[in-house]
Amino acid sequence: MGRTVPSYRDWLEGEILRLQGFRKALRDEDKVVFDEIIEMARKHASAASYLASEDPFKAMLLSILIELRKELKGKP
């Protein structure tokens, strides 16, 4: 039987769980920023699912960069 590749959403939620130790070590004001960044990644999960890649971290970073760029341009 072949190996099933987890969906991007499943991978993302797993990655977020793995990052909880890092989050826990942050200062309170940085935890807020961390949570905002995670939401940026979740916001583009549908688009990221279309990327057929062995490294879904790239899609996560690109999703965050898109949102940051929008913020710099003053767009919601």
Main features:
76 residues, mainly alpha, flat
Give an account of the 3D structure.
The chain is mainly α. It has a domain at 27-76. Helices cover 71% and strands 0% of the residues. Helix 3 (28-43) packs across helix 5 (57-72). It is flat and about 40 Å long. It starts with 7 loop residues before the first helix and ends with a helix.
What is the CA-CA span between the terminal residues? 45 Å
**DSSP helix fraction:** over 70%
Q: Based on DSSP secondary structure assignment, what is the total number of beta strands?
A: 0
Q: Structural class of the helix and strand makeup?
A: mainly alpha
Strand content: under 5%
What is the helix/strand order? HHHHH
Largest sheet: none
The Rg value, from CA coordinates, equals: 14 Å
- Overall outline: flat
The tally of helices reads 5
Q: Mean pLDDT score, rounded?
A: 91
Uncertain parts? none
